[in-house]
Amino acid sequence: MPSRSIRLNGTTVQADYESAGSGSSQSSEQLLDWLRNRQSQRGPRFGCGLAQCGACTVLLDGAVTRSCVRQMHTVADGAEIRTLDGLADGRRQHPLQRAFVELQAAQCGFCVNGMVMGSLGWLEGRIAAGNTAVPTEQETKDFLSGAAPDNTRNYLCRCGTHTRIVAAVRAAAKEMTG
């Protein structure tokens, strides 16, 4: 069974995973399955299995990644993976988590992982690039819908809490940049 060392939410873990084939025909278990079944991460969820809905979103070396279509053999040795499960600092919630709770931005909660982790990667990328302005409502809507130039993937919420989700992302951005 192949293995590599990965930092998962700040802790180094040995990543053993199922693999078959070699070279260009190599395949392995999906990152999402490895996270949920081998590492007990419950934040990333299986939604569509086609990288369309965002429920499986994680940050892989800081990049927003759809874990349902990412195979383990493509994750580099020493990679850093962040999931919703490791976002809180002890008992202190991350600003995005806090904003989603305070603004009641979820109904069923299934999409929350994707909304929070995708927004986290987007906001951290903006801040790292020197953009500390709170995104406008339209910029936030464009990001979540996949219409923004820096994001071609959308995030789906079937419950219809879109206005609260946008407000939560903007509230968290204010705290993260302030």
Kindly report the spatial arrangement of strands forming the biggest sheet.
Answer: 2-1-7-5-6
> Which class do the helix and strand fractions yield?
alpha+beta
State the CATH topology of the largest domain.
Ubiquitin-like (UB roll)
Q: How many helices in DSSP terms?
A: 5
Mean pLDDT: 93
Binned strand content: 15-25%
Mind telling me which CATH architecture of the largest domain this is? Roll
What are the segments in which pLDDT stays under 50 over at least 5 consecutive residues? none
C-alpha Rg, in Å? 16 Å
Helicity level, as a percent range? 25-40%
Question: Which CATH first-tier class of the largest domain would you pick?
Answer: Alpha Beta
CATH H-level superfamily title of the largest domain: Beta-grasp domain
Keywords: Iron, Metal-binding, Oxidoreductase
Domain [2Fe-2S]-binding: 83-170
Biased composition (Polar residues): 1-14
Domain 2Fe-2S ferredoxin-type: 28-73
Account of the protein in words:
The protein is α+β, with helices and mostly antiparallel strands and 178 residues long. The protein has two domains: 3-86, Ubiquitin-like (UB roll) (Roll); 95-177, Orthogonal Bundle (DNA polymerase, domain 1), CATH 1.10.150. It has five helices and seven strands. The protein has helices spanning 31-39, 95-102, 112-128, 137-145, 162-177; strands at 3-8, 11-16, 19-20, 27-28, 57-60, 63-66, 80-82. The strands form two sheets. The protein has a five-stranded mixed sheet with strand order 2-1-7-5-6, with helices on one face. Strand 5 and strand 6 form a beta hairpin. Helix 2 (95-102) packs antiparallel against helix 5 and helix 4 packs across helix 5. The protein starts with a strand and ends with a helix. The model has no long low-confidence stretch (mean pLDDT 93).
